[in-house]
Amino acid sequence: MKTMLCVMTALCLFLCIGGNAGAKDTVKIGLITPLTGDVKTYGESVKNAFTIAVEEYGRKGKYTIQTVMADDRNDATEGANAALKLITQDKVTAIVGPVTSKVAIPVSEIATQHKVPTVSGTATNPKVTFSDGKRKSYVFRACFIDPFQGVVAANFALKDLKARTAAVLYDVSNDYSKGLGEYFRTTFTKGKGTIVAFESYQKDDVDFSAIITKVALKKPDLIFLPDYYNKVALISRQIREKGIRSALLGGDGWDSPDLLKIGGNAIMGGYFVNHYSPDRKDAVADAFIKKYKARHGIIPDAFAALAYDAAGILLKALDAAKKPVSEEILKALAATKNYKGVTGTISFDAKGDAIKSAVILKVDKTGFTYVTTVNP
Amino acid sequence: MEHASYIISQVINGLQLGAVYALIALGYTMVYGILRLINFAHGDIFMLGAFFAYFLISRFGTPIYLVFFATMAMCALAGYFMEKIAYKPLRNAPRISLLITAVGVSLFLEYFCSLKAIFTPDYIGFPRPFEVSAWNFSLGGIDFSFTNVQVLIFAITFFTLALLYLLVYRTKQGTAMRAVSHDQETVALMGINIDHTVSLTFMVGAALAGVGGILYGIAYPQINVFMGIMPGIKSFIAAVLGGIGIIHGAVVGGLIVGVSEVIVSAFLSSTYRDGVIFVILLIVLLVKPSGLFGKRIDKV
Question: Fewer CB within 10 A of the terminal residue: chain B, N end or C end?
Answer without folding.
Answer: N
